[in-house]
């Protein structure tokens, strides 16, 4: 790529008819979060159902990630690429937009609340079809679609970025997709948060 | 009067590097102030997160941003801050600037580019002018860049080849991909001519730098071998080695101060600890990339310059240029090839190095004889996450689970996407300019640049004609799913103009030597000087002109003191 393009307008996007979609989603998400005063609850169209303060988002997030990228005998899933650990790294990374980090955690909480409201059980206890149905329902709102889309993005990062960042264990993502990475790769001392920026 | 340095250069990219190199070699003391850090070969890896997702080589937009004014459907100008839109107009803030991250496609301008007005006449709504210099004035400096920065390739005779003073490029071509030969053949079949593209990439070790190591990751990535001809690797390292050039990273210049006579007296900057520092010199050179150079001049008001430095004729920031054109793609499906051909398609590392310039000028039934441009061919960007991102949508809905995995396998394993990019002139016009935003400030409290990005409809028409030619070639190659897009959105990394050079102070900021008409100790040496941009990437011309300006500065300082350039 010589010409840097406006987000969502690359030739590849256009060729596959998703022109502008991602850019639109990014701006829509920002707009909606601002319009809702930063509360994801309002975005999901739910009353404020905040649970106990000791709510641990990680088990549910792990289950969502494994549902979005399931393990199969011949190809890795969220578990094999250590996607949950990678997401912990993302949520702790100050280089990632704080709004987005917050969005990941809050969206997860409201997914769980929606599961309890609809099925009387937390997301973790739903069967495969129940999880799938609930996630599909969540994506019918713009914010919910953005939340799932954001998780998919970080799953792709865990699958396809340098193993030094905690995902893509033993290059398992690259090997699965027959992807040839560049060299040298980042390692201890050259990961972006370790550069003398 | 005592001065800290002979020359102070603000910005260390392609505009600043040649000045630092030439002046230090000529025996003068040089200070380079660079806003960003000083990263070196050992810091650069092929890291998609660093370059392109966390964007660590440029500022976080919450700290430093731009405001972009776009025309809405009703023709009104709508301003959006880039921290809101995510549309990043930074291109690399570190020693060497964005030249660290270029792809190094080094086409010269052609003689006609210096004479657009007299060759093609005026275009309504566009501020087209001839340059105050000719191709012949710049040619020796293109030649110098080829030798000192290190340009590889082979000069071959063809209809639109530029005149050269040397018979060939100083370094042989980089290793080329098997697709290059197929492009040559397809072009021949269509009656086109595919030319071999010169690259600012060393194909063999030279000048203390290693040769290209063919990782397949070039544009957007810093070069870990030193083969890419960045201002840092090719010029600044040598300038520093003279002992006469000091580079101060983390130095954010916020004002250029002037005295009662209208000469620059000092430069004020924030150091890494945010303390305010001041430095003075005999000559000052601004080279912050076009948008930021105009911004700095506009912000530098003084007793003789109430509207900004060198701006008493209200020209600073006007006639900003990007590169018009667009991009297209087609998929080379492995199913259309036998095993050996598929293996060759999958090769990663060698360069495509092919472009078409058959329509650099052409006759259009609607517009008559017009300036066209070039079509550059290249493999799809190697970044993986961005490719996967496209696979998560189907018919506008998110896909996950096993269907997503099957879609990823299809996207990654079944074809390779060959792209082309069209470059044609971005016509200078009154709706494309830089000003200071009245509300948003950077983290040091300075107003950010507001950029109106209006494009002339002529550019879209020409770009579409060229994109159709690119599509023809992809079709001849047997690509599937061929598509292209030409639009008015500018590529933020291809900036020029804003301080155009010319003979008259009423219509230009700089004189033909790129010295400010209104300030005799100020030069601007980045792409800002260009009154029209030509239709190739800018870096080569910025380098060449900056070497030319360096010679003028040396002359103004009384001539070289030592070994010379």
Could you explain how this protein is built, in words?
The complex is a heterodimer of chains A (197) and B (565). Chain A is mainly α. Helix content of chain A is 52%, strand content 0%. Chain A has 9 helices and no strands. Chain A has helices at 11-15, 21-35, 40-43, 58-68, 83-92, 98-119, 128-138, 142-160, 172-176. In chain A, helix 5 (83-92) packs across helix 8 (142-160) and helix 6 packs across helix 8 (142-160). The longest helix of chain A is centred in the middle third of the chain and has 22 residues, at 98-119. Residues 11-32, 34-40 and 45-51 of chain A have low confidence and may be disordered. In chain B, a hairpin with a 2-residue loop joins strand 24 and strand 25. In chain B, helix 1 packs parallel to helix 13 and helix 6 crosses helix 12. Chain B is globular, with a radius of gyration of 23 Å. Chain B is of the alpha+beta class and 565 residues long. In chain B, strands 6-2-1-10-25-24 form a 6-stranded mixed sheet. In chain B, strands 5-13-16-19-12-22 form a 6-stranded antiparallel sheet, sandwiched between helices. A 4-stranded mixed sheet of chain B has the order 4-3-21-20. The model of chain B has no long low-confidence stretch (mean pLDDT 97). At the A-B interface, helix 1, helix 2 and helix 8 of A face helix 2, strand 12, helix 10, strand 18 and helix 11 of B.
- Computed over alpha carbons, the radius of gyration of chain B is 23 Å
Topology, number of strands of chain B: 25
- Overall 3D form of chain A: globular
Structural class of chain B: alpha+beta
Gross morphology of chain B is: globular
Low-confidence stretches of chain B: none
Q: Helical proportion of chain A? A: 40-55%
* Terminus-to-terminus distance of chain B: 28 Å
Question: Would you tell me the overall average pLDDT of chain A?
Answer: 83
Hey, roughly how much beta strand do the residues of chain B contain?
15-25%
For the termini of chain A, the CA-CA separation is 25 Å
Overall pLDDT score of chain B? 97
Structural class of chain A: mainly alpha
Give the chain pair forming the largest contact, with residue counts.
A-B, 66 and 80 residues
Q: Give a short account of the largest sheet of chain B.
A: 6 strands, mixed
* Total E-strand runs of chain A: 0
Q: Oligomer, anyone? A: heterodimer
Strand content of chain A: under 5%
- The DSSP helix count of chain B reads 13
Give the helix proportion of chain B (percent range). 10-25%
